[in-house]
Amino acid sequence: MPELPEVETIVRELIPILTGKTLAGAQVHWQKTICGDPGQFLRLIMGQTIRSVERRGKFICLCLESSYTITIHLRMTGALIFKPREKDGSYIRAEFRFTDDTVLYFSDVRKFGRIRLWTPEEPFLSELGIDPLLEEGVFRVLSSLRSKRPIKSVLLDQTLMAGIGNIYADEALFRSGIHPNTPADRLSREHIHHLSRAIPDVLRGATENRGSTISDYRSTQNAPGSNQFYLKVYGRREKACETCGAAIRRISINNRGSWFCPSCQPE
DNA sequence: CCTTAGTCCTGCATGC
DNA sequence: TGCATGCAGGACTAAG
Fold it and tell me: 3-class SS at A80?
């Protein structure tokens, strides 16, 4: 699943490729991919030049010269690719052609991904929380929590911090020695300091490895990441903890799988 | 305020 | 081998 490191990897690849390109044509093969009316969407973006490409949380933002912005959210299996493989063919949900005849394909097996056009008047991604790459911001958010919700659920809450998903929430909690079910308002001062450091560390490390490819994630050039080889708990079913040797366990928190070491992360 | 369950989707793992 | 079942999950929504 593309989270902050995977989306950041994609955006870094898109910046030199898409900046300055002008949209010449587009096709939508799965209508629900586009939020709102696809016809209206296509009319409004046609002929527009991409001024910049940015990441906000897990959103890819294509800022247009008209001051409109296209956002792309990949959700579970979405991918932006320039050279689709044979097997991608039936999963192409939309495609964008530019005046230089290059084509950007939006592929998405599970059809959860969404593309939306924002007018300059709309409150752009106003619900999104802070970027969790800066320790100071993460510390401020974690220090101000007055909620009894499990810390795992809080880390996944995009209105507090935007970009953390299931994989990196579990990894950051493991590094901090915090059980995922710990009520957020019961974290010790030490826990908060540790987690504030662990979150940016985990995200930066994963970005340096160009993300984690568990099943579907691919970069715009169809390249997998390598960070899956460095995960300490996520998906390590029945495997031994590298720190203490205990068996990694999986529990469900708010209907989301949570992987942890019962010995390194006591209740 | 909070949690839980359902929804969207498909491929893959499991079980008989 | 084939078929049925169920599960995963990000974000949203409805219900309790």
Answer: strand
Distances (CA, A) of A203 to A31, A197, A249: 33, 10, 22
pTM above 0.90, yes or no: yes
Non-local (6+) Cβ contacts of A126 within 8 A are none
State whether residue A114 is helix, strand or coil.
strand
Task: Give the residue with greater pLDDT, A90 vs A97.
Answer: A97
Report pLDDT for A238: 80
A153 beta carbon to strand B: under 7 Å: yes
Predicted pLDDT at A88: 80
For this structure, is A58 an active site residue?
A: yes
Q: Which nucleotide is nearest to A150 (CA to C1')?
A: B3
pLDDT in tens, A189-218: 999 999 999 999 999 999 999 999 988 899
Nucleotide nearest A32 (Cα, C1') = B8
- State the pLDDT at residue A216: 86
Q: What is the total residue count of chain A?
A: 267
> Which of A21, A55, A58, A93 does the annotation list as catalytic?
A58
Distance CA A19, CA A211 (A): 23
Whether residue A87 is predicted with pLDDT greater than 80 in this model: the reply is no
For residue A35, with 0-12 CB atoms within 10 Å meaning exposed, 13-18 middle and 19 or more buried, which class applies?
Answer: middle
The question of whether A190 is a catalytic residue gets the answer no
- Give DSSP secondary structure letters for A237-252: TTPBPTTT-PBPEEEE
| Closest-approach nucleotide to residue A149, Cα vs C1' | B2
Q: How far apart are CA A87 and CA A134, in angstroms?
A: 39
User: Which DSSP string do the residues of A191-216 spell out, in sequence order?
Assistant: HHHHHHHHHHHHHHHHHHTT---SSS
